[in-house]
Please model this.
Amino acid sequence: MYPGKRHYTDFEEMLKNEQLDILDICLPTDLHADYAIRAMEQGIHVLCEKPISLKKEDVDRVYGAAERNHVQFMAAHVLRFWPEYAQIKEIADSQRYGKLLSGHMTRVSEIPRWSWDGWMADEERSGLVPFDLHIHDLDFLVYMLGAPKAVKTARVKRPDQDSLSALYEYEGAFVSAESAWYAAAAPFTATFRFQFEGAVAVFDGQKLTVYETGGTTRDLSAGDQGEAGVINLPKTNAYANEIAYFADCVENGKPADIVKPDELKTVLDLLKAF
Model:
């Protein structure tokens, strides 16, 4: 697949033979924390695919290893770098259209039959929809709005599909979210709609549109940023953005604190509701 590149099937052999500055960990979720720590103990900076772990206690283990070994660590929660999601956070933070009143987020697809060794459909390795799919939207809500005051959840879990809904309550606002892996071959869909005092912002998976109460419609889409991937992900350069951000932090000795350990703990705590 990558001509001229060296390949390893043994992690320790790779660490022994290569001089690595940064390691990007994209293993099954249950392996994230242990492999991240093993790399950081060799003085390697680690960017780790989300979630950091299925266990809240691993957050302190991983960040403790980073501190002891004077290296950087970041969990790759890509929505923080997704142009349309960054836009909606700026709108919420600036209160450009007043206070947030309500929101809805959707993230659904067919069950991921394509994963190596079927690991994504294995609850012990992936955590299924709460930890692998819904975590994207929940993490973004915590990033944008903080921890909710209250949560109501519903879930239907079967061997061939897993679907959930949640209602997150904030001061003066609420956000509902649905996530699912369907048995049917439904296409990947990720959308959101947020209602503010002065506008409604709608992301349809391709374009972010703001409908202002005065009648003006604004297209805030970042435009095409690459071809859709094999699982029909929307066009974006968010993955490149998060890698570039982490590399810049490492190169310039800046903390990679766009993702904070306390936020990761909050998300893992909230996921217990499912």
